[in-house]
Each structure stands twice: as structure tokens, then as C-alpha cells.
Inverse folding.
């Protein structure tokens, strides 16, 4: 999950919405957010859960939808935010650009 998607999920949680983080792996920053918004929720507060999903696999996407319905009873918004990052293409350029300025 990229930083933009994490920030969007945190905004939803801060606004009172519960969130399912669906990704191939649970990244530490998302895990920290899930810890902050536990399930079951406290006093009707929003909660965050993780469900393993490969967005390119329709069976996984369908299973995630079912998971969200089972846990929350409904789905109000689906935001597929796949994050593709190629370290070999970006890290050296970013480090060079930052250090030059």
C-alpha cells in the first residue's frame, strides 16, 4: 500500500469510516493503523482490518468483497489503489535529485 492510499484510509478512519486494507502483504505502516483502530471497535468507533488480496486476481477481489460484507455488513466505497514501485528506477534518481538541491 502506497503512502497516498494509506493517507486516504487514515482520512476515512478519522471521519468515522471503517476500512479493509487489502493487499498482497501487510506493510508495517498499515499494521500500525490497524492497531490504532482495532476490531471489534470500541463504542461504535471505526475499525481497520487486513485481508490478503492480489488486485490482479478476480477470485481474491471477490473474496475481499465477501470479507468486508461479513465483517461490516455493507460496503459504502471501494477504492482500488494499486501501488507499483520500481526501486531500481526511482531510488537512485530520487537520492541524486534530493542531494543536489
Amino acid at each position: 500500500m502506497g503512502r497516498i492510499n494509506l493517507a486516504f484510509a487514515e482520512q476515512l478512519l478519522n471521519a468515522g469510516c471503517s476500512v479493509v486494507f487489502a493487499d498482497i502483504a501487510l506493510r508495517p505502516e498499515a499494521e500500525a493503523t490497524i492497531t490504532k483502530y482495532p476490531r471489534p471497535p470500541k463504542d461504535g468507533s471505526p475499525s481497520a482490518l487486513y485481508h490478503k488480496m492480489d488486485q490482479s486476481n478476480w477470485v481474491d477481489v471477490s473474496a475481499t468483497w465477501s470479507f468486508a460484507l461479513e465483517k461490516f455488513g455493507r460496503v459504502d466505497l471501494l477504492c482500488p489503489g494499486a501501488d507499483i514501485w520500481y526501486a531500481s528506477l526511482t531510488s537512485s534518481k530520487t537520492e541524486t535529485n534530493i542531494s543536489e538541491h
Observations:
- The mean pLDDT is 82.
- The chain has one domain: 3-100.
- Residues 58-72 form the longest helix (15 residues).
- Residues 95 and 101 are 10 Å apart (CA to CA).
